[in-house]
Amino acid sequence: MNTLARIANPLRRAGTAAVAFPAVAAASARFMASKTVFVGNLSWSARHDDLRRLFEAYGPLESVRLMTERETGRSRGFGFVTFAEDTNADKAMQELDGKDFHGRPLRVNESTSDRRTENNSGSAFGGRPEQGGGSFGGSGLNDKSGGGGFLG
């Protein structure tokens, strides 16, 4: 739970958050109400603006991230859309999952948290924890190979 939520939740329960700390209460409400959805099976020709236009029809967006290849700038076939309100995200997931977009059926569902942040393992230099982290190796909690990279 973020700091704003830790401050605002007890105050909200006491009924004083909106009066005593309106900025904290408003920021906490925005954080608590937003929802991020995963959008997969995107065409490589998909662009950031295409994704934004598609999802804006369901409500205000906080962010749109289309994952692209570093060298070519081409779509990697997936992205994330964060809605300002979770009810809009739910409606978009229900209506867009399986819908044809640029010739491919979309996969739209609620985003899950990144595993690296959950178990605090893996290398600080990148890579997946279950694969030993990045180029310097690592010994994540799920690492079966005993490390990786040139230090493993």
Describe this structure as you would to a colleague.
Mean pLDDT is 73; it is low at 14-18, 114-123 and 138-143. The protein folds into three domains: 1-33, no CATH class; 34-110, 2-Layer Sandwich (Alpha-Beta Plaits), CATH 3.30.70; 118-143, no CATH class. The strands form two sheets. A four-stranded antiparallel beta sheet has the order 2-3-1-6, covered by helices on one side. The chain has a two-stranded antiparallel sheet with strand order 4-5. Strand 4 and strand 5 (104-105) form a beta hairpin. It has helices at 3-14, 17-20, 22-33, 48-56, 86-96, 115-119, and strands at 35-40, 61-68, 75-83, 100-101, 104-105, 107-110. The chain is an alpha+beta fold and 152 residues long.
Q: What topology emerges from the helices and strands here?
A:
Layout: H1 3-14, H2 17-20, H3 22-33, E1 35-40, H4 48-56, E2 61-68, E3 75-83, H5 86-96, E4 100-101, E5 104-105, E6 107-110, H6 115-119
Antiparallel strand pairs: 1-3, 1-6, 2-3, 4-5
